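ingest -> validate -> predict -> emit
validate: passed (alphabet ok, no gaps, 281 aa)
predict: started
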Amino acid sequence: MATVFYTTLALIAFAGNSVLCRMALGDEAIDASSFTVLRLLSGILVLFFILQYSSKSSESNVAMSKGSWKSAAYLFIYAICFSYAYITLDTATGALILFGAVQLTMMLVSFLMGSRFNKLEWSGLIIAFAGFVYLVIPKVSTPSIYGFMLMAVSGVAWGMYTLAGKKSQQPLNDTAYNFLRTFPLVIICALLSFSFFEITPKGAVLAMLSGGIASGLGYTIWYIALRDLSAIQAAALQLSVPVIAAIGGILIVNETMSARLLIAALFILGGIALTIKGKQR
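emit:
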């Protein structure tokens, strides 16, 4: 139940992150570089504030884990490519490319590392992905090569970051230091793009919410959940993010429940259930 709770929270954070990013960039409230810089800096500040508080209240003498430069590089590549890709992609097209790249990356790397998936797991993943495609396909437009390549790279980087997180024994420490290790790259990004910065108060707030809450806390929770999830389960579960975002739209901004959303949700959730059942077997 703890794994279910943490996984649900993480997926809600992912959905919120996509909405915040699209609101900021789609409304031109902020440019892509500024959004990425503020997002990562906010994540660093929030995570280290929490880490400082938790370390004072903890009496553990266990050596502190400090993430890795490799994971930090994956995190930065994901964040910067994600922001720039959404300049030319609509939400549905970006989601399709991103999650497609995530699935392929996680499956391929896991296979090369010796993992083998049974028929039920494969069936569940295929059904879930089919439901995801069915949900977004009416809104998908022909992507630009520029946007497609950037979002594909972002998906590969996020897949690798997720796989690296399966080894984390101290999720808060690892996430905080992964964010901190992006700082040199953030500074370089800021210096190279400073003359192009376009920041409104709305854009700055959205970027900070994305970084501090949806990314910083969300990724920490995701690392906690990953300890009890297989690669194929983690890959399949992330396909539920667009459904969660759509349900959020229904609950928060009074959007209507469509038959397409209901059918897609049944396919995605059913496929995830099959994947989890297959892993148990």
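The longest helix spans residues 32-57.
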